[in-house]
């Protein structure tokens, strides 16, 4: 399926290549800058018609050039415009120099900007191409503007953000709106970048579709149903409970059974035909008193588990929620190496000292393991990858997926889902109130429920994360894990 152009993601380097190829094809690069600057001016007038003055902060590159065009367009519209430039604008080159020459407004030094009531700031300082911390004089202006809460419209990306990773490089503007061109960058979706961009508008400035698509990362996109819906089995007329799969969730001891029940109920809500909680004998009574539609089976040790596994209808397992970390978790996990497994929480932590045992067990054949680490768990399982500051969250998730031959859900408000073949999706539909006790147990259950029905590991992981976010939206602020389970809407 061909994605709409605005749904593609380009790194800053790839976007620079797009600009160069467009210019080499005969398209006027200054014409593109003109369209970009005019789009910024139009957005400013549309969304802030009552501004007493528009303050344009122009940097030393093409982002600054867009700012000079926007300043000219705003003045021609009759607005009060003040312009401040970083560095000597006489040293600008190429299209930025031309935009400066065409701008009739006399600017002042960047450090001379003093915010006034009624200002709307247009940030044309660095955009998405920044790769090092902002200079001190820029950081000082950013701090002053952010502290006052001055409305900021960012061109391409709020200055101070890394367009590849969404990280803050020293300091960054907090924009109420961001205007970007042709496609989004990863930094528009990854945190904290997503929060600092405000409302994002993507404007077509006339670069041909074929050029943009040629440089887009075809394995990277926002996590949306179009990416995985075709791979999720749909219930047909002849469907029965075993065709919809049998999901097994392992329970902890008598004082730690709730997490497994949350996962089990979520798996049932996600569409699994049968769900069983595998419980230690000592916890059977607790679980039995609280279960109705979920079945119960006693499994005390590895030998009992292996005997039970002779039933091949047991297709998919969830291990980790409330289970406890240690040798028993490792034994159970390795016994399941030929089945589909969602390894979560304590299951992940159990392999912190010998992760290669886990990776080797699932290294061959189709991907059948899903790992769901949050930041701390990721660092415990992949300490070298986690410590590499040159890698974005996307890079880290991809590296982990390749190493483990697993689908990785690198959890957070900007969860990244990655496959061993390099596919990666950034999730953006999760509301902040999903950060509550038991939320991760519910996510594991949804993913397990989809895998039990036959969804491939990566697609089940991506769909599970998206459905989890959607359930959070439906449940609303103040949700509990119980509310979240009820709000799950199967595909």
UniProtKB/TrEMBL annotation:
Residues holding AMP: 411-415, 440
Catalytic activity reported: (6S)-NADPHX + ADP = AMP + phosphate + NADPH + H(+); (6R)-NADHX = (6S)-NADHX; (6S)-NADHX + ADP = AMP + phosphate + NADH + H(+); (6R)-NADPHX = (6S)-NADPHX
Domain (YjeF C-terminal) ranges: 224-491
Gene Ontology biological process terms from the UniProt entry: metabolite repair; nicotinamide nucleotide metabolic process
Domain YjeF N-terminal: 15-213
Entry keyword set: ATP-binding, Isomerase, Lyase, Metal-binding, Multifunctional enzyme, NAD, NADP, Nucleotide-binding, Potassium
Binding-site residues for (6S)-NADPHX, renumbered to this chain: 62-66, 127-133, 156, 259, 322, 374, 441
Cofactor(s) for this UniProt protein: K(+); Mg(2+)
Binding residue positions for K(+): 63, 123, 159
Domain of life according to the entry: Bacteria
EC number of the protein: 4.2.1.136, 5.1.99.6
Cofactor binding notes: Binds 1 potassium ion per subunit.
Function text: Catalyzes the epimerization of the S- and R-forms of NAD(P)HX, a damaged form of NAD(P)H that is a result of enzymatic or heat-dependent hydration. This is a prerequisite for the S-specific NAD(P)H-hydrate dehydratase to allow the repair of both epimers of NAD(P)HX. Bifunctional enzyme that catalyzes the epimerization of the S- and R-forms of NAD(P)HX and the dehydration of the S-form of NAD(P)HX at the expense of ADP, which is converted to AMP. This allows the repair of both epimers of NAD(P)HX, a damaged form of NAD(P)H that is a result of enzymatic or heat-dependent hydration.
PANTHER family per record: ATP-DEPENDENT (S)-NAD(P)H-HYDRATE DEHYDRATASE, ATP-DEPENDENT (S)-NAD(P)H-HYDRATE DEHYDRATASE FAMILY MEMBER
Similarity comment: family membership: In the N-terminal section; belongs to the NnrE/AIBP family.
HAMAP family given in the database record: NADHX_dehydratase, NADHX_epimerase
Subunit: Homotetramer.
Name of protein: Bifunctional NAD(P)H-hydrate repair enzyme
Highest classification ranks of the organism: Bacteria, Pseudomonadati, Pseudomonadota, Alphaproteobacteria, Hyphomicrobiales
